[in-house]
Amino acid sequence: MFLLKLISFIYSTIVNLVWFLSNFTIFLIHYFFVLIILFFLVSKFIKLKSPPIPKLFSSNSFCIAFYGGIFDVPENTKASIEYSISKHCPRILLSLSMTQCGKLVVLDKETLEKVNIHKDVNKVTYNEIKDIDVSSTHPLGAQYGDQKILTLDCLVKIVEPLNDDFYVILHAKCGSNAIFLEKLKQAIATHEPLFTKKFILCSNSPLTIYKLRKLFPNLMCAIWMDNLSSWRSYKRLFRLFNFFRSIYDVILRNLITPLIGVHLVFIHKDEFNTHISELWQNYDVVPIVYYVNSPSEKRYYQNIIKTPYLTASLRSEPQIIFNSQKS
Fold first, then answer.
1. How far is CA 61 from the centre of its chain?
2. pLDDT tens for residues 203-248?
């Protein structure tokens, strides 16, 4: 008799639990859609006006030099900018970080690791790294001489006299850091209107972009979407991340991007195809694929997909190879 009562109790508990979970799930789904609708309505009133997209990103100019062409030249340096210009590549992506003392520098963690400093950029002071010769660890560094780490102020001075069709994309590595954000606001205000004319800020944080564009409506910005393919070996986690990423992509593309006024998005080549390209272009957003380095890949993105790409080498551009073979 006791066993029957126990079984009955367990059964009723399970049934009630399933009923509760199912109803709670339905409630969450309804609540989620209500929030989406409210967000869409509110966005009509807080939507930021988009600056015009540079013609270079909608023309037949495809390549963007990653750190100036990291395979060909010391990365994030004055030499990398000069090299990019010499190869007729008027768009370059550089890394923007902040040191422990609050100095904005054109530097990436990997550069520090090459000189045996195994710390994040925000864990070292500018005095510790200002004398580092970036060329010393690059295979072709001897061709470019002594190349020091650039501060953001130095970078602005280098870019200022260049042609108006030259653009620097700054990839903010610590965009969600409040101190970094304040320093960046001060830098933009100091170098206005040059900064909003020749620089494009790239971040993986839509909130950071919204805060900056609210203060500087003419600031051009881009979204960086991190690559999930490194999680493929963890199948269950990868499926879970992929599921949530799909939801995030839809929200980002349909709601957030139009709201914050972004016209450029960086997508890893493993997560890119013609369908993804069309979806973004439907919202007047130009997708940029990273990292594309082989000549055959470049020809594919130029001739078939017709979309810009981020490359670590300008020596492997199909036009350069073709012209050299022809001559």
1. 19
2. 999 999 999 999 999 999 999 998 877 666 666 776 777 788 888 8
